[in-house]
């Protein structure tokens, strides 16, 4: 006890409050206490419930604090508070134990239970249907209570629990029997992120090879337009060849004119899953959990394997990554570079980690990358692939010196075509200037993380073509330094012209109507 608490106890018992300094002096110089035993036994050692609660009230009436009473009697402060509250509200009656039996009348009577038993003769009726049937007759019983009573009666009468009729198993329509037979493609939204420069969601475009479950290409993009999709498709085609068919949903980017032209040029069959049947697309099942990343503090990504429902006909194995940790990771990501780095690491780990779909293989290949191996799809010449993807292009008018301005860079095309519109064709990290059927120049480019602006342009390659200027050069090529790539100043804001009110001006006649002689 504190000195002030002892002073309060003295005031409660003797109606006079000493100073805490006097209490301190008496404890230091006075005789030892004469009481050598406990006044009250501990709370649990008192057999009479009323007596042990009376001890709490007695000590509190003498000025003991709640903490001191709880420590002295060996109980909790909540018990002391509850006892004093019952004493104040009920007096002596509050000291006895109270029955915890149900006070309210039971909802389910024998008549209601018998009514449930009668309706339970239908073995296929469930707790919800039972609840609805009783409610129709004016009997209000919750579905959970109906289910509990039905379970008791099944155990009492030895009834079997009704089983639902077997559902026909669905055949996986795009199950691949060989490598590069089907590629599954889908776009997933990342709506929760902390990137201040991006107001809308971020998109993940991924391509999955159905047989090996390997991610052939995947990228994060600020847009889900056709150009972003074709960039990912071009990367997969360049590294792994062309598949026999591509499986997607009904997204517009997958059926755009440019995409369909590429499918036709590369002899790729386009397949579409049925509406509202996402299980038919392997990648949609992957992307549903692909970004539920479980990223620990040391940036190690932990994956947990699970199996799809048996209704899908085949045991389709995918990676289930923890949702909450993934949401937390994206909410705390503050830079585009960190997001891209985490995405690239995940793709690498996924492709080279053991996959449950290949666990029973006897050839020792258990990861998607090992199963795919060196096998590629149909291969095409680089020039043919380049022409097939010429749909991803823009046009620019060449200046008097033969330069085309693109993303704040001046790229030389041909001065003999000054004023003409040249075609800017972008394929991965290669930018080409074309006019007609002939290439003018090619450049190597590197994009900034936003996929909108160029970070670097170099490695110029000028080609011979029939559009070269007939005018001879004024100086020999070695006499002056000639730049084919120039950094241009970015465009400033366009000036706004205020519209003034219309003013009608009357033009006087040029000739007089009549001239007097």
Average residue-wise pLDDT: 80
Q: How much helix is in the residues?
A: 25-40%
CATH superfamily of the largest domain: Ribonuclease H-like superfamily/Ribonuclease H
Number of structural units classed as domains = 5
Any low-confidence stretches, pLDDT <50, length ≥5? 287-327
End-to-end separation? 134 Å
Radius of gyration: 42 Å
- Let me know the number of strands: 15
Strand coverage percent: 15-25%
Shape: elongated
Main sheet: strand order: 3-2-1-4-5
- Provide the succession of SSEs: HHHHHHHHEEEHEHEHEEHHHHEEEEEEEE
At CATH level 3, the topology of the largest domain is Nucleotidyltransferase, domain 5
Q: For the record, what CATH class of the largest domain applies?
A: Alpha Beta
Number of continuous helical runs? 15
| Secondary-structure class | alpha+beta
The largest sheet is: 5 strands, mixed
CATH architecture of the largest domain: 2-Layer Sandwich
Please characterize this protein's 3D structure.
The chain is of the alpha+beta class. It folds into 5 domains: 37 residues, no CATH class; 61 residues, Orthogonal Bundle (Arc Repressor Mutant, subunit A); 48 residues; 191 residues, Ribonuclease H-like superfamily/Ribonuclease H (Nucleotidyltransferase, domain 5, 2-Layer Sandwich), CATH 3.30.420.10; 83 residues, no CATH class. It contains 15 helices and 15 strands. A 5-stranded mixed sheet has the order 3-2-1-4-5, with helices on both faces. A 5-stranded antiparallel sheet has the order 8-11-12-13-14, with no helix packed on it. A 3-stranded antiparallel sheet has the order 9-10-15, with no helix packed on it. A hairpin with a 4-residue loop joins strand 2 and strand 3. Helix 4 crosses helix 5 and helix 7 packs across helix 8. It is elongated. 23% of the residues are buried.
């Amino acid at each position: 006890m504190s000195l002030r608490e002892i002073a309060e106890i003295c005031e409660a018992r003797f109606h006079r409050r000493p100073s805490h300094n006097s209490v301190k002096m008496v404890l230091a110089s006075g005789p030892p206490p004469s009481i050598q035993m406990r006044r009250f036994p501990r709370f649990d050692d008192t057999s009479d419930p009323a007596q042990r609660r009376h001890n709490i009230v007695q000590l509190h009436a003498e000025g003991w604090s709640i903490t001191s009473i709880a420590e002295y009697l060996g109980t909790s402060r909540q018990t002391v508070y509850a006892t004093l509250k019952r004493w104040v509200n009920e007096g002596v009656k509050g000291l006895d134990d109270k029955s915890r039996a149900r006070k309210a009348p039971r909802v389910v009577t024998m008549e209601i239970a018998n009514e449930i038993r009668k309706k339970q003769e239908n073995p296929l009726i469930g707790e919800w249907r039972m609840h609805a049937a009783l409610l129709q007759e004016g009997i209000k019983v919750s579905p959970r209570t109906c289910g509990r009573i039905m379970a008791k009666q099944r155990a009492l009468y030895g009834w079997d629990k009704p089983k639902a009729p077997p559902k026909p198993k669905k055949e996986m329509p795009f199950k691949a029997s060989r490598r590069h037979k089907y590629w599954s493609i889908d776009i997933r939204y990342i709506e929760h992120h902390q990137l201040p420069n991006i107001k809308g969601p971020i998109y993940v475009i991924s391509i999955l090879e159905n047989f090996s479950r390997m991610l052939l290409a995947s990228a994060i993009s600020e847009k889900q337009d056709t150009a972003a999709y074709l960039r990912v498709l071009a990367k997969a085609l360049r590294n792994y060849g062309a598949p026999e068919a591509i499986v997607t949903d009904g997204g517009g980017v997958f059926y755009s004119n440019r995409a369909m032209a590429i499918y036709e040029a590369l002899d790729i069959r386009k397949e579409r899953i049925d509406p509202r049947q996402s299980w038919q697309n392997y990648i949609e099942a992957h992307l549903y959990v692909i970004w539920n990343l479980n990223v620990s503090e040391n940036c190690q990504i932990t994956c947990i394997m699970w199996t799809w429902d048996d209704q899908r006909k085949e045991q389709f194995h995918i990676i289930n990554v923890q949702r909450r940790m993934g949401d937390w990771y994206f909410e705390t990501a503050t830079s585009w570079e960190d997001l891209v780095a985490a995405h690239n690491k995940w793709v690498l780990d996924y492709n080279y980690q053991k996959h449950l779909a290949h666990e029973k293989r006897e050839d020792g290949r258990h990861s998607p990358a090992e199963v795919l191996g060196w096998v590629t799809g149909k291969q095409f010449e680089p020039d043919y692939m380049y022409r097939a993807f010429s749909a991803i292009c823009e046009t620019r008018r060449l200046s008097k010196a033969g330069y085309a301005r693109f993303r704040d860079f001046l790229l030389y095309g041909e001065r003999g075509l000054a004023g003409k519109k040249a075609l800017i064709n972008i394929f991965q990290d290669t930018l080409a200037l074309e006019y007609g059927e002939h290439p003018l120049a090619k450049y190597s480019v590197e994009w900034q993380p936003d996929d909108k602006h160029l970070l670097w342009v170099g490695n110029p390659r000028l080609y011979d073509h029939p559009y070269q200027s007939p005018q001879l050069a004024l100086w020999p090529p070695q006499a002056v330094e000639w730049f084919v790539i120039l950094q241009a100043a970015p465009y400033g804001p366009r000036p706004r012209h205020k519209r003034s009110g219309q003013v009608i001006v009357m033009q006087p006649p040029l000739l007089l109507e009549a001239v007097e002689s």
